[in-house]
Write a structure and sequence with these properties.
The complex is a heterodimer of chains A (240) and B (243).
Chain A (H helix, E strand, L loop, with lengths): L1 H17 L2 H10 L2 H23 L4 H21 L1 H10 L6 H31 L12 H32 L4 H25 L24 H14 L1
Helix pairs in contact in A: 2-7, 3-4, 3-6, 4-6, 4-8, 5-6, 5-8, 6-7, 7-8
Chain B lengths: L35 H11 L1 H8 L4 H24 L6 H30 L6 H32 L3 H28 L7 H20 L18 H9 L1
Helix pairs in contact in B: 1-2, 1-3, 3-4, 3-5, 4-5, 4-7, 5-6, 7-8
Classes of the chains: A mainly alpha (240), B mainly alpha (243).
Chain lengths: 240, 243
């Protein structure tokens, strides 16, 4: 029974991974709620597992927190930008409904989350092999390496998800790549703006070793913003 | 009028330079079921295409179980040879670590292989991917057991941990290369559009396998602890061993 459930799940999920635009177009047209629920489940499990592997280095409690926060960021970004994305699509030449635009973005995040979930055991293995996260470890080669690996894996997942979204939108735009490109860029910009600030508010993820394990940093969660921090860092590098 | 009922003469067919590769199951021998674990061992060595064909058809679950059971048994044998270098607790610790390490490496890398196969356009299901990984483990452990007499001879005649470690590493890499060749042939049958995903996965699998030599140390020497207390990257562990 478990095997047959796994088989059904894998057969319905593989078209998403393969990026079968025709089939995915059909899924969007039907806009089946059960498919959207399945996508949400994949995001919760996939991104949750990767989040757990990321937070585990600091403490098991941190693993639990990041396992909750990581999928939350993806789902909140999708929902928070749903209206904006649905408005941008027709303005940029792609006539689709709110539900279809929401499902399209959800599908791209589902692919990214599935990739993250698949890399979660590898990330956990890497963390298990790393020395403990002590205050002095933040300048160690292991810390920098682990941070770099997380960035590479998340970027890879994001790029593949976006690539599949572009294929899907090209199919929806009847092969008009320039319309698909415009919509993807607009959606990406919106998601990046919202998602990065959400990540800033919901920090910490890896967790600083000299600070307590917390779900949020209540005193600094809403202080500053992601872009201000990047700007200040660049200024410090250039002028100090 | 010179009408005849003869069809017009067709020009002779020019054979193409590259004949199309045969499909799995074209050879009737590939369709024969594989009986028992010994049958699986023989099939993977002599008829790997028969294994690939059977993995796509009903009864694949049984074949996967047989291949995994055989791989674990063979890994335990090779582990005992590894443990014979130090004796004592290593008689049981090394076989457990070798078999466990191989299984855990495969398990860790399985989800990413499934994702890479899907992204490469393959239509393979999870069961087929698990089957290929089981085949990889069986091929790898089979070759390791093939090297076992040589490894045993050296482990009885040398006292250098570094030399024995190097020897086991070379045997492991040779066995892995052949096992990955089986995987590559299997991957080619999955209708993947490109091999880039598979090649990336091979790199990840090799890194995990090599890291296991540090994560499960000592495999050769002795230690009061079953697993190491200090975490190390495999390269720094090897460098420490050479000092």
């Amino acid at each position: 029974m478990i095997m047959s459930a796994l088989r059904n799940q894998s057969t319905s999920f593989t078209p998403l991974l393969r990026g079968e635009a025709e089939l995915l177009h059909g899924w969007l047209r039907d806009s089946d709620s059960s498919r959207m629920l399945r996508d949400v489940a994949v995001i919760v499990v996939g991104a949750g597992l990767y989040g757990a592997a990321m937070g585990w280095w600091r403490a098991p409690e941190q693993a639990l927190f990041v396992a909750i926060k990581f999928p939350l960021i993806i789902l909140l970004t999708t929902l928070g930008n749903a209206l904006l994305n649905a408005m941008l699509a027709p303005l940029l030449g792609l006539n689709i409904t709110v539900r279809q635009s929401l499902h399209a973005v959800l599908m791209s995040f589902t692919i990214a989350a599935a990739i993250l979930g698949a890399f979660a055991p590898l990330a956990a293995f890497m963390v298990w092999n790393a020395p403990p996260l002590t205050p002095g470890a933040t300048h160690s080669a292991a810390y920098l390496f682990i941070k770099l690996v997380h960035v590479v894996v998340i970027a890879f997942a994001g790029i593949v998800g976006t690539g599949r979204l572009f294929q899907l939108l090209t199919n929806l735009a009847r092969g008009n790549k320039s319309v698909a490109r415009r919509v993807v860029f607009a959606w990406l910009a919106g998601n990046l703006l919202f998602g990065s600030q959400l990540s800033w508010v919901l920090r910490p993820f890896i967790g600083a070793p000299h600070l307590p394990v917390q779900f949020l940093r209540p005193d600094i969660a809403f202080q500053g913003n992601f872009y201000e921090n990047v700007f200040n860092t660049i200024c410090d590098l250039l002028f100090n | 009028m010179n009408e005849t009922n003869q069809p017009p003469q067709l020009p002779p067919q020019i054979p193409s330079a590259k004949p199309a590769p045969p499909q799995l199951g074209d050879d009737p021998a590939e369709r024969e079921p594989i009986p028992g674990a010994l049958g699986a061992i023989e099939a993977i060595l002599r008829q790997p295409r028969r294994v690939m064909f059977q993995l796509r058809h009903p009864g694949a679950g049984g074949l996967i179980a047989k291949m995994l059971a055989a791989a674990v048994f063979l890994a335990l044998i090779y582990g005992a040879i590894v443990g014979s270098f130090s004796g004592g607790d290593q008689w049981w610790a090394a076989p457990v670590k070798v078999a466990g390490g191989l299984l855990v490496s495969a398990l860790i890398c399985l989800p990413s292989l499934y994702i890479f196969a899907g992204m490469s356009g393959s239509r393979a299901g999870l069961r087929e991917i698990i089957g290929l990984v089981a085949g990889l483990l069986l091929m790898l452990t089979l070759l390791l057991v093939g090297f076992a007499p040589v490894a045993w001879l050296f482990s009885q005649s040398t006292e250098s941990i570094m030399w024995m470690g190097f020897l086991h590493l070379v045997f492991c890499l040779i066995a892995t290369a052949f096992a990955l060749r089986f995987m590559n042939a299997g991957f080619a049958q999955l209708q993947a559009r490109s091999n880039a995903g598979f090649n990336t996965w091979v790199l990840i699998f090799l890194l995990v396998l090599l890291q296991m030599t540090a994560a499960l140390r000592p495999l050769l020497g002795t230690s009061p602890d079953f697993l190491p207390v200090e975490k190390k990257f495999f390269l720094s562990h090897w460098i420490d061993c050479m000092k």
